[in-house]
Amino acid sequence: MSTDINDLDAVREAVQRYVDACTDADSEALRSALHPAFRMYGIDTSDEEIAVTVDEFVAWASERQPPLGYRATITHIEITADVAMATLVEEKYYDTDYTIHFSLIRSGGMWHIVTKTYSRV
């Protein structure tokens, strides 16, 4: 099954909305990139797992200034019908580097991030 280039562009744009919101520390733009049922899971500074809801993540982001030197690039996108996976590599997100795996769904004609699973690298 081939993936439509328009779908690839749309998923890339959805992830880029997230990146732009992080770059600008824009909590409302961040919320618009995320599905209302969004959940975030990951390993950060220890072996402790962190689980966060959309409201918790947006509240955390609203308390921040834009991160200095932040860069991010999408390294992989895979789409099956109305679901997608995307991998994002971040550098200097508040002085930390991460690899993020996003799950996205297309709902109402728009792609939104449903889960963010990450690890500090």
Provide a brief overview of the structure.
With 121 residues, the protein is an alpha+beta fold.
Structure description:
This protein is α+β, with helices and mostly antiparallel strands and 121 residues long. The chain has 3 helices and 6 strands. β3 and β4 (83-91) form a beta hairpin. α1 runs antiparallel to α2 (27-33) and α2 (27-33) runs antiparallel to α3. The longest helix is centred in the N-terminal third of the chain and has 20 residues, at 5-24. The N and C termini lie far apart (33 Å).
Question: How are the secondary structure elements laid out?
Answer:
Elements: H1 5-24, H2 27-33, E1 34-43, E2 49-53, H3 54-62, E3 71-80, E4 83-91, E5 98-107, E6 110-120
Parallel strand pairs: 1-6
Antiparallel strand pairs: 1-2, 3-4, 4-5, 5-6
Helix pairs in contact: 1-2, 2-3
Name the features.
alpha+beta; 121 residues; 6 strands; 3 helices
According to DSSP, the number of beta strands is: 6
Approximately how much helix is present in the residues?
25-40%
Ranges with pLDDT <50 over ≥5 residues? none
- How far the N terminus sits from the C terminus, by CA atoms, comes to 33 Å
Instruction: Kindly report the spatial arrangement of strands forming the biggest sheet.
Output: 2-1-6-5-4-3
Count helical runs: 3
Radius of gyration, taken over Cα atoms and rounded to an integer in Å: 14 Å
Please state the overall shape, judged from the principal axes of the Cα atoms: globular
Estimated structural class: alpha+beta
